[in-house]
Amino acid sequence: MQLNGLLYTLPKELKLLIGAFIIVLSVGFYTGLLFVGETSSTNPNGIKEQYLGNESDEEAIVMKFKKSEKEMLTLVHNHILSMSIIFFLLGGILSMAKLNKKLKLFLIVEPFISVILTFGGLYLLWKDVLWMTNIVMFSGVLMTLTFTAAVAIILYQLLKRNSIKE
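The structure corresponding to this sequence follows.
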């Protein structure tokens, strides 16, 4: 079965369903990023403070305590499961887009690697592997960029008219 370019040939109702799903998924994804910005900031020290606490910092404006193992396991478990489903669905839809095979493969596979590196990295950071902060930041940014690229490609191809009549 030829998947490359299938998005163009889908019936209008299916395009609307996929488009609505992608938009709502994006609202949820970017709201999560806003939450990250509010709770842990986007710098290495903010990430460390969020998970390791800042009790020893006498100048801290907001006191934060080290997360418990239960909190960390819950966070890692919930995020890895939910993000894997999100990227599975997004990758399935993206597989129907007309796109260079290598780029498509990268956009489909990379988010799964970033999910493991980001949330596994947070757990290792909590276990005092402090250099994981840089991995967490890099993989989180890369995950966001691949999500954004996939969504943009899908929405563009859903909205673009094909030469085949619908």
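The helical segments are 6-9, 12-39, 44-52, 69-94, 101-126, 132-159.
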